[in-house]
What we know:
This protein is of the alpha/beta class. It folds into four domains: 77-177, Tetratricopeptide repeat domain (Serine Threonine Protein Phosphatase 5, Tetratricopeptide repeat, Alpha Horseshoe); 179-284, Alpha Horseshoe (Serine Threonine Protein Phosphatase 5, Tetratricopeptide repeat), CATH 1.25.40; 303-382; 394-550, Rossmann fold (3-Layer(aba) Sandwich), CATH 3.40.50. 52% of the residues lie in helices and 8% in strands. A six-stranded parallel beta sheet has the order 7-6-5-8-9-10, covered by helices on one side. A four-stranded parallel beta sheet has the order 3-2-1-4. β8, α26 and β9 (504-508) form a beta-alpha-beta unit.
Amino acid sequence: MAPPAADPQAAQGLLALAQLAGSRGELAQALQLLQQARVLAPSNPEIVFRQGLAQRALGDEPAALASFDAALALAPGNPAVLNARGLALKAQGRNVEALAAYDQALERVPRFAEALNNRGVVLRLLDRLEEAAASFRAAAEAQPNAAEIHNNLGWTLHRLDRHDEALAAYAQALRLAPGNPDFAVNHGNALLEAGRAEDALAAFEIARAARPDDAMLEMNIANAWRELQQGAQALPHYERALALEPGNADVRFNQALALLAAGDFERGWVAHEARWQAPGLGIDERVYAAPKWLGEESIAGRTLLLHAEQGLGDTLWLCRYAPLAAAQGARVLLLVQKPLVALLREALAGVQVLGPDDALPPFDLHCPLMSLPLAFGTTLASVPASPRYLQPAPQRVARWRAVLAADRPNIGLAWSGNPANPADRSRSVRLAALLPALPRGPQYWCLQKDVPPADRDAFEADGRIALFEENGFADTAAQAVLMDRVIAVDTSIAHLCCAVGCATEILLAFSADLRWLTGRADSPWYPAARLWRQPRPGDWGIVLQRLGESL
Length: 551
């Protein structure tokens, strides 16, 4: 049978019918009409392009890509087809090729808002966030009333920790699309991270009006209450989230944080085991051939591997359990981060300390450090609160005693932490704010690793703070044990100073970590610590004023 003769006019009629079918959601019918039209007008690029769009809508990305390539062969450089081709490539995970397609479209039409937005999405997937933000911003300038573009810009700026700009972008998205639950959730999360938990609650309630049975939204609301140190308000929202999604590990983990901060260790440490399954946390559990030990069986006569899993401060906080395991008759191996190896080998008796580069001896059982409170059945009343569970090497102590001032008090300072830590923005204090609280007379010593660039001018101008020649953890422990007092924010240095028994004034952000509980000026974990809490998020002024008065 001879092929149908070309009939461009009939093909245009079929194209119109296909577009009508597509507008009614009859995608399979639309594709069939387009296929017929293409037979009648095989050189019509619009028909081929529309066929590709129908194939994409039906989820057949490879066929769609073939159609877009055919359309480009008929109409080279068409920006709309190049943009659609980029979407088809992205859907197949071919992001670098998709980026090239968007760039080709933008060479023809530089202010093509849709291509700029799609380009930003692909750059974000490639983790090229600065470029993505620039692309979204250009898209927003080209099409200022497109709410989705402003939302994408906000999300990217949030990831870049450019919080004020992110909040402005989200606010614009919501002005253009009031009540959009996705935009409201994103806005709320950014507000929460910026320390504006009350405003975050208002944003989440906007979203909740549209999504009343959303477990993750209930978790977000609970997290906002937790940031406000209102555990009693947070816990019912976690319970509702778990009722909606009983197996949600992210919810269970965040519930654990609220329970532990409230001192409910019996339930909190059990719930804390959900961290390994929580995708939002993104930590991988180490897998060993030996079984995990959570306290169910005797460890007497067995070799137990305890291993660090989170930050240096967490290791210093919970390594106190290693001697307790040894006291139960276990041979204890303690695997820790490299910076802590020398310290813990010297300061922790009865334990074999290993670093990440050391070969592991055979062992019978293992336990992550953050699971030890559960394994030992720790309650608020049974916290192992030894006033000095780390003993610095005597020769190091003698070395630094010879350096310290003998005629006046020596006070250690640690006012800032690792800037790469997401919590550092709220937990660290600017040195210029701390200095007025420090009375004249004592000799002050910098116990933290270095002086941040932003504090160097204040450090040099004040002249009262001395630097040690060595500041590895083993030496810092020996220095700390000789201090008459230490003033520290919530970093690993605070844990180190408390572990060696130094009287430590700990400055806490309003939303403090779970280990400091809620509303207390003392710590069941550290008898030598006194806690100074912000009365409001970001308000160090009253904290430093009261600290200065006490000193």
